[in-house]
Amino acid sequence: MDHLLTVIIFLPLITAGLVGLIRNETFAKVSSVAVSGLVLILSLVLFVNFDFERGGFQYVTRLDWIPTLGISYHLGVDGMAISLIVMTALLFFAVFVWSWRIEDRPVLYTALFLMLETACLGVFSALDFFLFYIFWEGMLIPMYFIIGFWGHERKVYAANKFFLYTFFGSLFLLLGFASVIIYAYFQTGEITFNYIDHLKMGYPLWLQKIAFLLFGLGFAVKIPMWPFHTWLPDAHVEAPTAGSVILAGVLLKMGTYGFVRFSLPLFPEASEFYIPLIFTLSLIAIIYAAMMAIAQTHIKRLIAYSSISHMGIVTLGTFAMDKDALNGAIYMMIAHGLSSGALFFAAGFIYDRIHSYNMDDLGGLARYIPNFAVLFMISGLAAIGLPGLAGFIAEFLVLLGTFKKHPVWAFIAGVGMVLSAAYFLYMYKKTMLEEDTITDERIKKWKTLRDVEVHHLIPFVAILAVAFIMGLYPSPFVKIFTHTARMVLGAEV
User: Fold this and answer.
1) What is the DSSP letter of 181?
2) How far apart are CA 334 and CA 87, in angstroms?
3) Residue 64: partners with Cβ closer than 8 Å, 6 or more residues away
4) In degrees rounded to 5, what are phi and psi of residue 433?
């Protein structure tokens, strides 16, 4: 069972190699759907068999890689990691099904997404600093080309901006890794990249404060936190639909995952010290990004700003130093991954049919594509945290846990969350309703629109079904996330 994690990570990469060698469009499409579906099934097997009552990492594999430098091939997962792996596998499966009819260089397109899947799964599994950094940087290249090749008008500009921002953040992360590894060497006389070894190290406060900032800058750019957020709207606006789904659903979670995996357990005293800073940036993101979303007329730009706002909720819950808030933050990672993925699929569907993301060019679509209108509405309700869907549980836990120790901060965050309903309902009204504003020419065009097809329906149903399950039956998910809270906070929870 332990080696199954390795199979899950590298099966997409092996398939990408085969796709590149065979170079057949049908093989590329069939193999991508089949392999991503298999990866999803295998990840569910690991999820179902995960023992959340047992402490520590599970499904651990460790092999010497570069022993003279203390580098090893070291994998393992906790409750948070296995949940993110399942979500990642689900979103990539949805992306490959959605892309079934792609005609523009499908072989290269498929190979790049398969490579990207391996990098994303590896980030959530690596327990060696060197291995983690390889996966972390490995996702930059395929995503850069996905935006640059299949994006819209300003795709090259957006791809370059995405690469420069994230690579800039990665340099600080590299310095952070170097600082703790060098300190450990002077203390023990041995070089080690092993995450578990560093957990036991106990760094002095001065080093914690420095390393926290170095790690934090790397993670903050990836999330992205305010004021490092400016690359995200441009990347989303120009990226193809599938690229936006993975960018919002998976890549943004790498930053918040990094805070929980590295910053909190490795630098506990510094984490406490920087709480006011993190809270301030989080609340600015929640409120400012929500206000920016309300001001948008471009659908994807609106959803991009909503992602920045929701990730502010995640960082708020992460640093509340409370088990309920941390559970809620992890819950929000999954809930936002699902809802944002569904919303970007919805935006992509509208563009495929209308060839515009501008809300001023839309209106009254619900009458002509009613099935899509229902799916779009449910996706938006999942994003704004309607009771019965995953987002509600996540927001409730974050506010509950934060309110225990920081009631004022929690109240301000709660007010900011209300704005999410405003921008989604505004977007839905402008795109699906407002029939009285439609010209006769548009009505004639709208009547010819095709509603959702099978390759659209499967991703929507798969994603929204999980959102409903997590919203209606949260108990098993809270238990598995508590497994991580127990490890990170070091408390009896």
Assistant:
1) H
2) 7
3) 72, 73
4) -110, -145
Instruction: Say which residues have a Cβ less than 8 Å from residue 80's Cβ, sequence separation at least 6.
Output: 257, 260, 261, 330, 333, 481, 483, 484
Q: Name the token pair of 314.
A: 């995640």
d(CA 460, CA 285): 28
Q: What is the pLDDT of residues 263-321, one digit of tens each?
A: 999 899 999 999 999 999 999 999 998 889 888 888 999 999 988 998 999 999 999 88
Confidence of residue 449 (pLDDT cuts 50, 70, 90): confident
Contact present, 313 and 398 (Cβ < 8 Å): yes
Give the pLDDT confidence of 353-387 residue by residue, as tens digits.
Answer: 888 888 888 878 888 889 999 999 999 999 888 89
Handedness of CA 42, 45, 49, 51 (dihedral sign): positive
Backbone angles phi, psi at 62, to 5 degrees: -140, 120
pTM as predicted: 0.93
DSSP 392-446: HHHHHHHHHHHHHH-HHHHHHHHHHHHHHHHHHHHHHHHHH--GGG--HHHHHHH
Which of 269, 263, 262 has its CA nearest to residue 206?
269
Report how far residue 5's alpha carbon sits from residue 48's, in angstroms, rounded to the nearest whole number. Answer: 14
Question: 394 vs 134, 318, 349, 469, 490, CA distance in Å?
Answer: 31, 12, 27, 13, 22
CA distance 314 to 92: 22
**Residue ranges of the domains in the chain?**
274-493
Which residues have a Cβ under 8 Å from the Cβ of 410 and sit 6 or more positions away? 399, 402, 403
Confirm if 37 and 49 have CB atoms less than 8 A apart. no
- ∠ CA(295), CA(300), CA(303), 5° rounding? 70
Rounded alpha-carbon distances, angstroms, from residue 368 to 112, 348, 351, 363: 35, 17, 15, 11
- For the cut 50, the answer to whether the pLDDT of residue 492 exceeds it is no
Q: Are 477 and 335 in contact (CB under 8 A)?
A: no
Is-contact 244 348, C-beta < 8 A? yes
For residues 451 and 372, the answer to whether their CB atoms sit within 8 Å is yes
Could you give the percent of the chain with pLDDT greater than 70?
98
